[in-house]
Amino acid sequence: MLISAFTPDLIEAGCDEVGRGCLAGPVVAAAVILPKHYQHELLNDSKQLGKEERQLLQTDITRDALAWAIAEVSNEEIDSINILNASFKAMHLALDQLQLRPQFLLIDGNRFKPYGDIPFECIIKGDGAYLSIAAASVLAKNYRDELMSKLADQYPGYGWHTNVGYPTDEHRDGIRALGITPYHRKSFQLLPSQLELFE
After folding, report:
1. Is 199 exposed, middle or buried (0-12, 13-18, 19+ CB in 10 A)?
2. Model-level pTM greater than 0.70?
3. Cα distance between residue 199 and residue 113, in whole Å
4. Residue ranges of domains in the chain, CATH in brackets
5. Rounded to a whole number, what is the distance in angstroms from the first to the last CA of the chain?
6. E strand map for the chain
7. Count H helices, E strands: the chain?
8. Which strands, in side-by-side order, build the sheet including 12-18?
9. CB of 30 within 8 A of CB of 68?
10. Tell me: the pLDDT tens digits for 36-79?
11. Which residues pair with 109 in a beta bridge?
């Protein structure tokens, strides 16, 4: 059972990002403010849900949430400011778009760059513990998966329809055969080193 709130008396936004470990595409973050005492029997960490479940949940989340927003930071900016800072920036951009100003932030993970003067709590595996973070993870993953699926149509051969930019064998085989696209993160190790290849 996921917990509905960390601070019952404050307006609380849950934040999560997806795509940090990908070789291509943006990092995407979402922020969600749910009603107090909100419950949903299906809502869980997006990694534990199938695509159809996530799509159903998105309809409910966007209908029921007091406020929600999604933001992305491009692969070019990831290369410029590094993936950790890009993840923080994506969360900040999502928070900027909320129509309701939160009084407390729940952040999935163990690090965060403060957002103004709003207090926050970092929670490792928070998307499996708090409903607002789980909701943010669903919105962010759906948005990013759809984006990578569209890019897969433009750049076939990398398996983005299924791996959505993560470093799978199919993705790396595509890089070897076709080279990189404008959406690849040049600051990442796109292929294993020679030493790893011969181990």
Report:
1. exposed
2. yes
3. 39
4. 12-198 (3.30.420.10)
5. 44
6. 12-18, 27-33, 67-73, 104-108, 120-123
7. 7, 5
8. 67-73, 27-33, 12-18, 104-108, 120-123
9. yes
10. 999 998 897 677 889 899 999 999 999 999 999 999 999 999 99
11. none
